Structures are given as structure tokens and as C-alpha cells.
Amino acid sequence: MRSLKPEFCRAGPCYASRVSHAPSLRNQGPPRHTLLVRVTHWITVVSFVALLITGVEILISHPRFYWGEVGNSGTPPLFRIPIPSSRATVPTGYGYVLPDQNGWSRYLHFEAAWALVLTGIVYVISGLWSRHFRKNLFPDPADRTWSAFRSVIAKHLRLAPPDETASRAYNVLQRVTYLLVIFVLFPLVIWTGLAMSPGFNAAVPWAVNCLGGRQSARTLHFFVSISLVLFLVIHVAMIFLSGFTTRMREMITGLAAASQERTIEDRT
Amino acid sequence: MSKISRRQFVTAGLAATAGVSSLAVAASVAKRYGFVPPDSGGIYGPGETLTYATQRLFARHSLAREFPRSMISKVPFANAISPLNDAFKRLQAGAFADWRLSIDGMVARPASYSLADLRSFPVRSQITEVVCEEGWSYVAEWTGTPLFDVLKASGLLPQARYLVYFSIDPDWWESIDMADAQHPQTLLAWAMNDGDLPVAFGGPLRLRVPRQLGYKSVKFVNRLMVTDSLKGFLSALDPKSPNFGYAWYAGI
Questions:
Q1: A16 touches B at CB < 8 Å
Q2: What ipTM does the predicted assembly reach?
Q3: DSSP annotation of A136
Q4: Chains A, B: CB contacts under 8 A, how many?
């Protein structure tokens, strides 16, 4: 065993590091989630929660929504949210005004947005590079049918416990949902958010014009955010239903449960 | 865990050194070329710096959207203002004939203009949107004197970096960088929608900065000050400012 000592590394390929990959030494497969997926996941969680809280804070300074380019307290809203406002100029029907928290809320909203966007760029590039999306998220050809969808939905409705493969790999409903969140909802929420920035709109006017105007962008930003919150609620509920401790351990340490040592990457 | 080989250790060390030093270089270049906003300190500094640097790097000269006449809001919204002080009321009683706009600081020729003097400069009209950070907006036609022409007439000194502009309300001022101060759409507006600028909208004189949120468009402007430092004037540093707690750069 002397040959494993690091001194021998001088002579060429490092023996010690080569041996450490030998399967007999440690029965530890690749992680259920790669380090990059775990780190980007948790940065996204923190950013999203910050964006959600500050987004609500900003919203209560004008809980009315419009369609088109312009809208204000003097014009009819598309709809309004029946909550009090942090501004006395907004007709809410409530006899009081909430404290103004927009200063720090806006600072944090945009800083968290930067964290989310930069993390998202790293995640998407690495996911394409490592074929993570193709291997783990893009539905298998056999699953790209309505009957595959129906069977997964039926299983959920029957509250059937997940079988061995189902707990290791994502089913078609999960895959489509994750792809929708990553490639549709997040890009949309970033786009509609940017379309409210006067500086960005000066630089890229079509980005707001093609949405129907600034107030349309704001209304869409609200609905896409609601969709993301809906995803979050279901996502967290499913984690509780499918085993909170196991799922959390997988996303924090990467280690799969003892009974399912294979990574989801191994499935294909 | 596999042991880290010497080669990996050296590579990681070199990469880390290169990373840290390129960050340091980037930071000093950013400061040198004005990509760091004055409120870059504190926990929100990184986000603010990224926003400001990105827009100044890629969109320094972009123009705010201008709209057709048909899109002028029938109901523009005049946001609430603090009660007007006695000095304002006296000038208002005289139909603002004695309203003065002074310009001082880092200019070769400090000056003071009446509204009539300002009207003798080239006039610009533009139909732009007022966008409030609260979420609402309206479109109006603004007519006035481009700030750029007033700055040029006074002779900006080369060390000028910021413009601080004051309202007649002593607790109200704001500041912008030279990219926005010298921007063709930054307007000392004295008319709105074919009439004099109403008091509720900032009359007799409002500095319209259409590439930033409404709170940077200060109403009742009577003083411009050109400076190389915002120490003592930056809203985020001075709790007396109406903007206390709000981002300095409002182009988002």
C-alpha cells in the first residue's frame, strides 16, 4: 500500500487520486443531485423568497392593475386587490394607510433579481453542457404521449405511493413542470420585470412594446409571479408527501437514501 | 473524498489568485470610468452597482420612449406634495415672474435665470411617460429647455461628475450623473400639454429625467449645483432627504 502515498504522485499521473475512484474502495455512487444543481437550487430559493416578500411590499404601494401603457389612481383599473395600501393617494376603501417599506424592498428586490438571474445563467449553461436537461428533464420519447400524462395524473389522484423507479427519476408530469418553470416562467418573470424599468425600456423599447405597454408588463409580472408561487406551494407539498427528510438530504448533501444509491443520472 | 493532487492545488491556487486580482482590476476600472453608483456601500451595493454599471456600459446614450400625441393621458395623475412654503406662495402670487433658477458649483460661469430667460434657449417638446416607483404611470407632453444647453452656457468644468438639483422646498433635492444631466431628453420643463406647467405637476419648473423613475423628477426646481462628489447631498446618506432609503439610481 506504500504506492498510494502522495510522494509517488511526482512520477506522473497521480496514483492516489486514480485509486480513490475505484468502486471497491467506497460504495458511493454519484450524488442524486450534482453539487452545481444543489448550490444553484438553494441560491434560487433564497433569492425567490426575497423577491416574493419585497414584491408584495412593492405591490401594496399600488394594489391596482391596468392593461396597456398607462394607468393610475385616476383611471379605471383592470382589477384591484382588496387590501389596504401604503400610499394615501390610492383609493382602497380602507380608512388607514400601511407603512411605506418600498425603500429597502426595492433595493432587495433588484439585488435578489441579479442573484437569481446570474445563478440561472450558470445553471442553464451547465445543464446544457452536462446534458442534465436532456437526460433528466426532457421526457423520454415513450412518455411524450397523453396516455403517459394521464397515467401519472391518475396515480397522483389515487394517492398511490411512488414505486422504486418513480422515486429515483422524475415522471413526465414533473419533467414538463420543471421545464416550464425553468424555460418559460422564469424567463417571463425576468422579461416582464425588466419591461417595467425605464432605463431598460429606453435601451430595448420593443421588449415592453410587444407586451402591450408598461402596465400590461406589470400585470403579466403579477400573474407569472402567482404561477411561480403556485409551483412553489405544490413543490414543497410534494416534498413533504414524498419524504421530507430524504428529499432535503438529497438536495443538501447530494447523498441518496441507502435504498436508492443510484443517481437519477444513471437511469438512462 | 479523493485527495487533491499537487497539480490541482496549484491550478486552483492560480485560478483563485487570477480571480481575485481580476475582480480588483474590474473594481478599479469600474470606479475610474464611473460605473459605481454613489450608494454602492452596504448590503444592497452589489445589486445597485450591477444595475448602474450595466446600464451605463450598454445604454448610456439610449433615448427614453416617446409616444404619439394620441397616447397623451386624458387623466395625468398629480402625486401628493408637501404643503407649499411661503416663499413659493409669494412667487406664485406674482405669476412666477420673479422665479429664478441659479446654477453654481463646478461651472466656469455661475448664472441665474428667470423663466423668460430659460424660454430664450432652444425649446424642446417631448411626449414621455412619468413612471412612479409605486407602479402607476401617465404620458404627457413636456416642453422646456434641455438641461444640456443650460449646463453648456455655464461652462462645465472637466471635473464635474454629478448634478445636484434643489426644489424650493428645502427638504427636497436629488442628484444625477453627467450621463443623465447631459442627456438630450433631460428637460427643465416649464410647460405641459399645451399649457403652463401646473403647480400640482411641479410648475413653474420641474426637472424631467425620463430615463429614471418619477422621484428623480424634482418639482419646483430653483437651483442647480454641479459637483464632483455627492458627500453630504446623496439622499441615501442624508436622512433629511425625502428619498431617504431609496436607491440613488432610479433607471433600475
A1: yes
A2: 0.88
A3: I
A4: 147
